Amino acid sequence: MGVTDEVYFPTKNEGGLLEGGSNIPPYNTIGHHLIRDNIIYRCGQTGIYGCYGAVASIIEGNIITETNYRNEWFGTNQAAIKILFPIDVIIRNNRIYGKPGLRNGTKGIWLDWGSQNTRVTGNIITDFGFKGTDGLKLEVNFGPVIVDNNIIIRSHVMEEGNSSVWVHNLFCDNTFTFRKSPGRIVPYFRPHSTVRAGKGGTSLENVRFINNIFAGSDCGNSYRNAIEATGIEQSPNLFVEDSDWGYESMTEDGKTTVNIFIPGKVIKDNYPLISSDYIGEIPYAGMKMEQTDGLPLVIDNDINGRKVNTAGIKPGPFQTLMEGWNNFTLKLKKD
């Protein structure tokens, strides 16, 4: 059962769930939605869409598959989840599946303009790999946007903003693009507020890639080639291009399995604990990465909720990672 509020349900094939309006009212008068445990299958343009009205909302536990499967929609909104101005929004533990071979420009998660203190965590995103499609796209945001403990498979990843913190993710057979857009003038806001603090262009400032795993044939090379000239902080990460890996999508019992082989002696002991203090204050936004109530945020649980052992932090979304074969099971609903 999904829980929503003040939502317009569109005509057939226009989209799945639409929220919000055209102007941005005060923070406490909009948003604060809970969209949970829905199955959104073969929608038209969008699975879940929000513009302004998603402020302080939680989107979790949803299964979204084959959005825009008829190739009817083109433009700037076709995605499983498309949110503009997602201030203090949490997108977690969703399963988002593209349709292999479908070349329609549809994204998995697309955060566009005004993403501030937005967290994308614990999601599995697969098969958004063709040109014009993206498994995860962050577009002209000032952040902070925290992308942690996700599994992204056979998809393109697009970073076109500032102050995104990519940590403890598993990338398997992905491609990457990093784009500066100083000519696109977009707003940023006071912390935990819809009050505009200023405007500017984005140039990949203060973007971080830390404690991630890049696995599969050319995934690491694609990432390194794309990021080489950007100046983005990108260490430490784990690269296992020659690793075997496997993935089985959700079975009848609601479980997903991920298997990955880690060669010997590649896991180091220098992976840091990611916290508000470690990342520091985010420029423009004038805040650290925080919980929605303003308290500090520490990434101290993995995708299955297991606590991080600070004496031996592992890269990627599984803190039980070890050399050799690793077999992980994920449940959509946490105990």
Task: Provide a quick synopsis of the model.
This protein is mostly beta strands. The protein has a single domain, classed as Single-stranded right-handed beta-helix, Pectin lyase-like (Pectate Lyase C-like), CATH 2.160.20.10. Helices cover 4% and strands 37% of the residues.
Describe the structure.
It is a single chain. The radius of gyration is 19 Å and the shape is globular. Strands 1, 3, 4, 6, 7, 9, 10, 12, 13, 15, 17, 18, 22 and 23 form a 14-stranded parallel sheet that branches. A seven-stranded parallel sheet has the order 2-5-8-11-14-16-21, with no helix packed on it. Strands 24-25-26 form a three-stranded antiparallel sheet, with no helix packed on it. The chain has helices at 219-227, 276-279; strands spanning 17-20, 34-36, 39-41, 46-51, 58-60, 63-65, 79-84, 90-92, 95-97, 107-112, 118-121, 124-128, 136-139, 145-148, 151-160, 164-167, 170-172, 175-178, 181-189, 196-202, 208-210, 213-215, 238-240, 245-248, 255-262, 324-331. The chain is mainly β and 335 residues long. The chain is built from two helices and 26 strands. The chain has a single domain (17-331), classed as Single-stranded right-handed beta-helix, Pectin lyase-like (Pectate Lyase C-like, 3 Solenoid), CATH 2.160.20.10. A hairpin with a 6-residue loop joins strand 19 and strand 20.
